[in-house]
Amino acid sequence: IRLEAQLREALAEGQLELSLQPLLDVPLGRIAGYEALVRWDHPERGPISAAEFVALAEETSLIVPVGEYVIDTACLAIARLVAAGADPSPFVAVNVSARQMAHPGVIERIVARVDAAGLPRGSLKLEITESGVLDYGLAAGLIELCHRHGIRVALDDFGTGYANLCHLHRLPFDTIKVDQSFSHDMLDSPRAMAIVESAVRLGRALGAEIVVEGIETPEQLQALRRLGCRYAQGYLVGRPQTLAQLLAHPWDPA
Ligand code: G
Ligand code: G
Ligand code: MN
Ligand code: NA
């Protein structure tokens, strides 16, 4: 409860910050976009990861203003990168939670913020994790509404949890993000490699783009190239960085 009050204060006082992690377009060999990851630099405790405080924010209605801060800041950051010469225009992927999506009018407010930042609608992708799909009817309606507004939707952490093939069966995601546990093992485990390979094929069959997360070595990236995977994300491509860091070294892998 004390942390909740502190989070409310952090939001008001601008202690929340965004990190942006680049995604590589594997066949083209260039940065295609960024995933926004929210951070909280707590005055006494130091940096607190999103994993820690997003769960807390979800238990309260704080996830709504936190989510709006993230969308706003992410769109403005991408607009700054574009203004600084990022070419072609990158996309920005923003994580959203079920609690946030259940709020009436949330998509319309998100669209208004994309427009206000001067970005094309297609530059925003919403990333939904398994826990973000509480109800298929609701999720399908939200995805349809996003598509009508030109916003794309990704299924995050694919391969973990219970119902991910059900999600793909019922919901028309534009992007599937394969969880990093598979890429970490794929060069040592033929089973992990088989799963990544199947995900790439599944994406092609479903008309969804595949992102493989957690790429840390050139050998893993080479394997993705061989499989015909479209996007790679991970420390090899770049660590999550602040906008200031990205503007200082726009195309350096971190
Ligand atoms: O980068 P980090 O280890 O803190 O991320 C941990 C988790 O927090 C990830 O699963 C990520 O999806 C989630 N996350 C990061 N930023 C946000 C955000 O802005 N909103 C939501 N709902 N989740 C986020
Ligand atoms: O659940 P989601 O995929 O949104 O979470 C992304 C998290 O994964 C972030 O916390 C990010 O810092 C972390 N991450 C990104 N790339 C790598 C990587 O190559 N290796 C590891 N171990 N973690 C990564
Ligand atoms: Mn994500
Ligand atoms: Na993920």
TrEMBL record:
This is Cyclic nucleotide-binding domain-containing protein. It is found in: Cytoplasm. Residues 1-254 form the EAL domain. One of its GO terms (cellular component) is cytoplasm. GO terms for molecular function: cyclic-guanylate-specific phosphodiesterase activity.
